[in-house]
Design goal:
The chain is about 60% helix and about 10% strand. The chain has 37 helices and 14 strands. By secondary structure, the chain is of the alpha/beta class. The structure holds guanosine-5'-diphosphate and magnesium ion.
Length: about 800
């Protein structure tokens, strides 16, 4: 009994001994590690955990770091880190424990005292004004603090202590705040208390009848990476309002245990403190640190600032660098003050100002409101999945639109409609500039043809480079339009809704929700999409997502679709295109299911899909966004594709066929180069032709000829090259008139000129469909394979991707071809 009182005093006088204060050659036992989660993880990985014995080796008052012996090893800690480790000294233990007869104490006794001492939990109450903190405080501590509808005039905290299941719980009633910025004295006080006094648990009391506003504070606690337990107070009001909340699911999403309470009647409080002990002892499975996703742009800023902050280690011992970065972006003067002592303070500040300016120019909005919006987006997303409002709930406009576009059933047709409209515009608007670009490219080719002496170099320039690149650049308008629409959907906030409804579907098919964003990115380019899987914590989830991303039809495949669709499905382009994208998605789903059952055994971790407020798109910003993507596309053309075009041209150019009789191509007679049959025979006899013919038995069942085989092979460096190769293979050697024709027309007119099928059309709708399906499904490009290798850390998965995607491509292409033949 007496030692309980002593403990009580120790806590109140704040005389807990910290490891940093222990003098040299003293042995102590750790009672607690304080500080934010990532710090605790790091320090406990070094062996600093409750109950462990530490010998202080070197501790000169002004020197950093301090040296310790722990588990037989010597380790050094920074002073700022050692300050966050609470210990019990022999002197303190002598005070606490019943002394042995001679007044000495051994290490065993010290450990027993440490165990007792670690059963003291400091809990800070945080929450909005009038959420019931004081009522709760009074209930459990039997005190009679003033309760009522007032906002605190004096900024103060009250502390009281009580026993629960053998633990001593010290409860601190902090002033009510809506937020933890530093703009009011209450906020500053509460925040400083949490940071400086490092309570073991922050008990976040929220008013269940006003979840959205109350959870705002919770998002800030999440940013701080501290241990939080949520009391869903005024639960009685929630029930009577008729609203329904799935608090278990919400808790899982937030990584915070939620306990319903009605403080005024004392209901739920036992369970609440049981849970707090579980969390304190790290036995609660719900607890996990989540990152609120602030969106690509903000995350980029956070990352830039974090890198700078992390240069100064002592500060990140106390505060999570992510939290500090966010506070700095929010123009928080107190955060800036914290960093004043950093050696690179000026540089940090510079980067912060840069990032704030960048965000401002990107969104026309200051970074503070961007952060606030993202937080409310996070809350809306979490509530949309777990909360059904009662009768009094009023929806804002955003809420009304969301009810429609994220509707359980209606959401999908709306999503499909938007996708369809996008593709429709891509085709119809994009077809006009196509003609102009084609004429431009043809003109350039003619210029070079007429101004250069004949020879290999001229052939390389005209047939290789200009033809090859020209057939890709021609799709730039289509791609710009597609990028414009996707940028528009992202900027208005619709993309987040699309992700939201898809997430529900993903869960149904056993796929992870977090995988959806990388998959959506995959529609642009698979490479960044695979890199984006880094946000997925679980390795199995991550690998699985990586492996199915190649089925997301990237923009490089679009040119192939455009050529074949305009050639063979001019009446229903958007339908076929939407169908292809959907087929890719379906394949991804099927593959996910298969892999889930076979290679991966995954455990799902829930997370919040943010629903940020809608915003009016600003045309300039959307155009910049679009151009960003287009630039990356053009850079790719400039590099890889140019090299690939030259290689393919060379494979087709050599070895040189000398003289060929047009009537009997296999015999050698005189014919002029430039003639169409001459050129086709040249190709057929070239290295490329040999490769294509070697492939023929494999692709013939798909209705394809050897040139299509070559096109598919040529697409390995990048899928756009499929089109440029078609340009080279099918368009070559036409007289000048024909070379001005668009590729789709050339393909339509293409006939077999020798062999059993001579005179028949090479392409028909069935062949075109089979080819489209193959291009969609077989692995996207070398860059993607290299990225999978890098991100998964082994060639195994990269090779696996090559094999299985190509296998699927063949099978589905075959099925498509056979079915299509029945109808065509
Ligand atoms: P504080 O500002 O967070 O300290 O909130 P108070 O403890 O002062 O409570 C504000 C008001 O809410 C008081 O009138 C309480 O009686 C009332 N209250 C507290 N808890 C509950 C509850 O669980 N249900 C209901 N209906 N009212 C509560
Ligand atoms: Mg109060």
């Amino acid at each position: 009994m007496s030692y309980i009182c002593t403990l009580f005093l120790i806590v109140l006088n704040k005389v807990q001994v910290r490891l940093s204060e222990v003098e040299e050659n003293n042995r102590v036992v750790i009672t607690k590690v304080l500080g934010h989660g990532s710090f605790r993880r790091r320090i406990s990985e070094m062996g600093f955990v409750t109950g462990k014995e530490v010998l202080v080796l070197k501790n000169a008052p002004l020197f950093d770091p301090v040296e310790y012996q722990l588990l037989g090893y010597n380790v050094s800690l920074r002073r700022a880190e050692a300050e966050l480790i609470e210990v019990i000294t022999i002197a303190e233990a002598l005070d606490l424990a019943v002394p042995t007869f001679d007044g000495t104490i051994d290490m065993e006794a010290l450990k027993i005292s440490a165990k007792e001492k670690s059963k003291t939990i400091l809990i800070a109450l945080a929450g909005n004004p009038n959420c019931g903190k004081t009522t709760l405080f009074n209930r459990v501590t039997n005190s009679k603090e003033h309760v009522g509808n007032y906002s605190g005039v004096t900024v103060d905290s009250k502390i009281a202590s009580f026993q629960h299941r053998g633990y001593t719980l010290n409860l601190v009633d902090l002033p009510g705040t809506y937020s933890l910025t530093s703009f009011s004295p209450e906020e500053l006080f509460t925040r400083n208390y949490i940071i400086e006094e490092t309570p073991d648990i922050v008990l976040n009391v929220i008013d269940a009848s006003n979840l959205e506003r109350n959870l705002f504070l919770t998002t800030q606690l999440i940013d701080m990476d501290i241990k939080v337990v949520l009391a869903l107070n005024m639960y009685d009001d929630l029930i009577t309002s008729g609203a329904k909340l799935n608090q278990k699911k919400l808790g899982n999403l937030l990584g915070i245990p939620i306990i319903p309470t009605t403080a005024s009647r004392g209901e739920g409080l036992n369970e609440l403190f049981d849970e707090i002990i579980e969390v304190y002892e790290e036995r609660n499975p719900v607890v996990r640190h989540i990152h609120i996703n602030y969106g690509e742009e903000l995350e980029q800023s956070i990352k830039a600032i974090r890198t700078e902050i992390k240069e100064d280690k002592p500060i990140t011992a106390k505060l999570s660098s992510r939290y500090l970065a966010l506070r700095l972006l929010d123009n928080d003067p107190a955060a800036l003050e914290t960093l004043k002592t950093s050696t690179n303070f000026n540089h940090i500040n510079e980067v912060v100002q840069q990032e704030i300016a960048r965000l401002k120019s990107r969104w026309n909005e200051d970074s503070s409101s961007l952060i606030t919006n993202a937080k409310y987006g996070f809350i809306s997303g979490a509530l949309r999945e777990t909360f059904k409002a009662g009768v009094q709930w009023r929806y804002a406009i955003t809420g009304k639109i969301d009810r429609l576009v994220t509707h359980r059933i209606l959401g999908f047709p709306i999503f499909l409609l938007f996708m369809f409209l996008t593709f429709f515009a891509t085709f119809t608007l994009g077809s006009f500039p196509m003609v102009w670009i084609n004429q431009g490219v043809a003109f350039l080719g003619d210029m070079i043809k007429s101004s250069m002496p004949p020879g290999m170099f001229k052939d390389l320039l005209t047939d290789g480079v200009i033809n090859g690149l020209g057939s890709i650049i021609i799709f730039l308008p289509n791609i710009l339009i597609l990028f414009f629409f996707t940028s528009l959907m992202e900027d208005t906030g619709y993309m987040a809704r699309a992700a939201f409804i898809m997430d529900k579907l993903m869960h149904k098919i056993g796929l992870h929700g977090r995988s959806f964003i990388p998959m959506v990115m995959g529609f642009g380019c698979n490479v960044p999409a695979i890199m984006a899987t880094r946000t997925i914590r679980n390795r199995g989830d991550r690998l699985l997502t990586m492996l199915i991303i190649p089925f997301m039809s990237c923009s490089a495949r679009l040119p192939v679709y455009i050529v074949l669709i305009s050639a063979f499905f001019p009446n229903s382009p958007a339908l076929i295109l939407t169908g292809l994208y959907l087929l890719g998605i379906t394949m991804a789903i099927i593959m996910a299911k298969i892999l889930n059952r076979t290679l991966f055994r995954r455990k799902e971790t829930p997370f919040v899909m943010e629903l940020p407020p809608y915003r009016m798109p600003i045309m300039r910003n959307t155009l910049v966004h679009m151009w960003d993507k287009a630039r990356q596309y053009l850079q790719k053309i400039g590099g890889t594709i140019l090299i690939a075009v030259i290689i393919i041209w060379a494979l087709e150019y050599f070895p040189r066929t000398k003289n060929i009789d047009p009537a009997n191509p296999t015999s050698v007679t005189a014919t002029q180069p430039g003639h169409s049959i001459y050129n086709q025979t040249q190709i057929e006899n070239s290295y490329l032709g040999s490769i294509g013919h070697a492939m023929e038995p494999i692709i013939a069942p798909l209705g394809m000829d050897w040139r299509m085989g070559i096109c598919l092979l040529a697409g390995i460096p990048a899928k756009e090259i499929v089109v440029s190769t078609m340009g080279v293979l099918y368009q070559t050697g036409k007289d000048d008139q024909k070379s001005k024709e668009l590729l789709p027309e050339v393909l339509r007119a293409q006939e077999y000129y020798i062999g059993p099928k001579a005179g028949q059309k090479v392409f028909n709708q069935a062949v075109a469909l089979a080819f489209l399906v193959f291009v969609l499904l077989y692995f996207p490009c070398i860059a993607v394979i290299a990225t999978i290798k890098r991100e998964s850390g082994s060639w195994k998965w990269a090779l696996f991707t090559v094999v299985y995607t190509t296998g699927f491509a063949w099978i589905f292409s075959f099925i498509t071809y056979r079915i299509a033949l029945l109808f065509i």
